[in-house]
Design a protein that fits this description.
This protein is α/β, with parallel strands linked by helices. It has one domain: TIM Barrel, CATH 3.20.20.70. The chain has 11 helices and 13 strands. The longest helix has 17 residues. It is globular, with a radius of gyration of 18 Å. The two termini are about 30 Å apart. The structure holds flavin mononucleotide. The site of flavin mononucleotide has 26 residues, from β1 and β3.
């Protein structure tokens, strides 16, 4: 799957990713009203990944409806990513996404760099339960909660999402980070703090999925630092039924989706697996 926030600015870019072999597309995170995001610099390249503080720029959910329609022409499921400053606002966005024709909603409860729009709600199990319950009472399509690793227990957040009625979990969003320019004696990002993505966070994401898999009975989608089939296999064996890819597109282009799929097929035939679901969570067997 294409992760939220990368190459999903327009219907055309999402269609391109679908045609390149992604099994599903997640839109950029959308709110009720247009947001301009943070001023530049809002991305810094560091060893093993990217630090971004985009600040959730988006045109507002209604203005994006035609892009959703265009993305759906790719023939794969489209997940609409919802943000909001309150449980009510998030539910309103989810309703608008559902009306725009998305196949599922992903609640972004985990952005580390947009004050009031992410972790303030997403690091409290009570609020996560409330948001998921509110959204579920308003729409009929599946609802996924995307959770933050910037917490002492992501498994408790996942359990709260499940109690609220979420149909699945997406883990992880970016890790809080900062980079400083020594000559300028100041943080590089205008927002100072950003979210770290890419290979640097893969082992954190795999650990989070492993813990969530043991805490809930709903499907988990793994994301964070995946650029090869072996990376995807780590998440699948930790318990993910599907995976998302974002940062790797920067270095590998959209070919990364087909490459990961081919690598997974090769691994499965070499190791006697008939389907991806035969591999989900198998790392836990060795654990008992
Ligand atoms: C530039 C950029 C923008 C992002 N924007 C969003 C966003 O709008 N909503 C969201 O839920 N996640 C967003 N993310 C987080 C990704 O969806 C993903 O959870 C994270 O980058 C880890 O995956 P990766 O290492 O494959 O990129 C963004 C990540 C990057 C690098």
């Amino acid at each position: 799957m294409l992760a939220s926030g990368i190459l999903n600015e327009t219907g055309k870019s999402m269609l391109e990713v679908a045609r390149a072999g992604a099994g599903a597309i997640v839109t950029k995170s959308l709110g009720i009203a247009e947001r301009s995001g943070h001023p530049n610099p809002c991305i810094a390249e560091i060893e093993c990944g990217l630090l971004n503080a985009m600040g959730l720029p988006n045109p507002g959910v209604k203005a994006y409806a035609d892009d959703i329609k265009e993305a759906k022409a790719g023939g794969v499921p489209v997940f609409g990513s919802a943000i909001g400053g309150s449980p009510e606002e998030i539910a309103e966005v989810a309703v608008a996404l559902s009306a725009a024709g998305v196949d599922a909603v992903e609640l972004n409860l985990s952005c580390p760099h947009a004050k009031g729009y992410g972790v303030e709600i997403g690091s409290s199990p009570e609020k996560v339960r409330e948001v998921c319950g509110g959204v579920k009472s308003m729409i009929d399509i599946p609802v996924f909660a995307k959770l933050t690793p910037n917490t002492s227990s992501i498994a408790s957040l996942a359990s709260a999402a499940e109690e609220g009625g979420a149909d699945g979990i997406v883990a992880i969003n970016t890790l809080k980070g900062m980079t400083i320019c020594p000559e300028l004696k100041m943080p590089v990002l205008s927002n100072r703090i950003g979210g770290l993505s890419g290979p640097a966070i893969r082992s954190v994401g795999v650990r989070c999925v492993f813990e969530i898999f043991e805490a809930v009975n709903i499907p988990v989608i793994g994301v964070g630092g995946i650029s090869t089939a072996r990376d995807a296999l780590e998440y699948i064996m930790a318990g993910a039924q599907a995976v998302q890819i974002g940062t790797a597109i920067r270095s590998q282009g959209t070919a990364v989706f087909a490459d990961v799929c081919v690598g997974l097929s090769d691994f499965m035939s070499e190791n006697g697996y008939k389907s991806v679901s035969d591999m989900v969570g198998v790392a836990h067997v060795a654990d008992t």
